[in-house]
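Long-time lurker, first post. I've been practising inverse folding by hand and with some scripts of my own, and I keep getting stuck on stretches where the structure tokens seem ambiguous. Below is the full token string for one chain I'm working on. Before anyone asks, I'm not after the true native sequence, just a reasonable design that respects the backbone. If someone could post their per-position residues I'd love to compare against what I wrote down in my notebook.
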């Protein structure tokens, strides 16, 4: 059917040539033509055409015009390309990162600072800034060339920045440490305000409370003035006294009984119902009793329970109600007597501690009451008898003459020098 020759050389086969017979060539042409011309489908029944078709099928090649599986061919092609790419180095490498040189970075910063206005960029950087501006234009970023546009851009940048500030700040606030629904910053602020308020308000409250106690104590002395007047009216202008005694024992021994404790003399006022224990209790003395006197009670229980110091009544001359020269007969607790009873150094000019050393209330023999800021009244120290006052003056003179120290002691058995000598205790 076909004739072919095999041309060989000494080194091996070079090429193969074959020629179809005229009948086979006509059959092949007719067979190919039948693919596009359905009217010639009878060729498939021709024996020569069948043999030509069989030979073509041995080559595993599709007959031209035959519908092929284009999807499979595409998949095979892509798979081969992928396998080839994985076995060889990629032809296209990803671009490497780049950085601006120091000069370009400086020029870029200057351009931004100038709001993209090249006329405001320093001359040494203007050329680089111009090239950067041109690159920005190529990248799609406008390169402003007028002050108006630069100003508009600046205003827009400010607006966008201010709009973003709350968005940045609020998340940080939410991250702040909180306790019980409050941020720590709020708690610190509240604590600071309370501390400042306390530093201002607390002294005011303390002063107000002290003034209230001072006023209450003054009210007590006003009531005691009436009680003293009533007692003096019943006892021929005399002041309260539990038992006649000329002294000798330590009169600051509270609770030792009438004739030995000077506070027992003052205790006659509540015992005989001229006043109450509450009126003899300073508001600042928590140890002072404020109840009723019992029939068997003759004195306070101890020195701490006594709020007011009374004239020592164990001397020969005692003051009288409405005498010609008024003297102090009753005052807030003596600090001298209490320090001496504890064996401590005394300070004759010290004020009573009933009111934190600010002063003391005093009741005089004429029934008047005074607030004293010093224990010295008309040259008389109400905490000391006249004899000790003279001894102190002599000790002070000896110190002035060259002696290094002087000592004056009080033992609790001292007595007033006269009816006009105020000496209060305990």
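-- Answer (accepted) --
I ran through it position by position. Result:
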């Amino acid at each position: 059917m076909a004739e072919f020759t095999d041309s060989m050389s000494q080194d091996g086969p070079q090429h193969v040539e074959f020629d179809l017979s005229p009948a086979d060539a006509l059959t092949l042409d007719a067979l190919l033509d039948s693919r596009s011309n359905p009217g010639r489908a009878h060729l498939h029944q021709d024996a020569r055409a069948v043999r030509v078709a069989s030979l073509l099928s041995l080559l595993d090649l599709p007959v031209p015009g035959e519908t092929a599986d284009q999807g499979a061919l595409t998949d095979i092609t892509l798979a081969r390309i992928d396998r080839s790419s994985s076995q060889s180095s990629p032809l296209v490498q990803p671009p490497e990162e780049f950085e601006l040189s120091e000069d370009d970075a400086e020029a870029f910063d200057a351009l931004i600072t100038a709001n993209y206005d090249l006329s405001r960029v320093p001359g040494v950087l203007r050329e680089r800034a111009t090239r950067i501006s041109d690159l920005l234009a190529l990248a799609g970023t406008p390169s402003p060339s007028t002050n108006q546009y630069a100003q508009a851009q600046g205003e827009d940048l400010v607006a966008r920045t201010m709009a973003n500030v709350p968005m940045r700040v609020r998340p940080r606030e939410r991250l702040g440490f909180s306790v019980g629904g409050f941020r720590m910053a709020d708690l610190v602020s509240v604590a600071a305000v309370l501390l400042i308020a306390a530093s201002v308000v607390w002294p005011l409250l303390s002063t107000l409370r002290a003034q209230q106690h001072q006023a209450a104590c003054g009210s007590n002395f006003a009531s005691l003035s009436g009680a003293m007047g009533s007692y003096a009216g019943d006892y021929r202008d005399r002041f309260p006294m539990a038992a006649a005694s000329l002294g000798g024992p330590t009169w600051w021994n509270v609770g030792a009984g009438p004739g030995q404790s000077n506070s027992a003399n003052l205790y006659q006022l509540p015992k005989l119902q001229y006043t109450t224990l509450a009126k003899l209790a300073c508001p600042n003395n928590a140890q002072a009793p404020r109840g009723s006197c019992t029939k068997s009670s003759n004195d306070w229980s101890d020195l701490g329970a006594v709020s007011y110091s009374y004239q020592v009544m164990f001397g020969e001359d005692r003051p009288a109600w409405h005498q010609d020269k008024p003297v102090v007969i009753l005052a807030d607790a003596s600090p001298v007597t209490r320090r001496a009873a504890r064996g401590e150094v005394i300070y004759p000019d010290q004020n009573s501690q009933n009111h934190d050393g600010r002063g003391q209330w005093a009741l005089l023999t004429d029934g008047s009451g005074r607030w004293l800021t010093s224990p010295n009244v008309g040259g008389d120290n109400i905490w000391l008898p006249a004899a000790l006052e003279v001894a102190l003056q002599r000790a002070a003179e000896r110190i002035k003459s060259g002696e290094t120290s002087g000592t004056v002691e009080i033992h609790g058995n001292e007595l007033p020098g006269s009816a006009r000598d105020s000496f209060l205790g305990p």
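A couple of notes from the structure itself: Residues 207-425 form one domain. The chain is about 45% helix and 10% strand. Happy to go over any region you disagree with.
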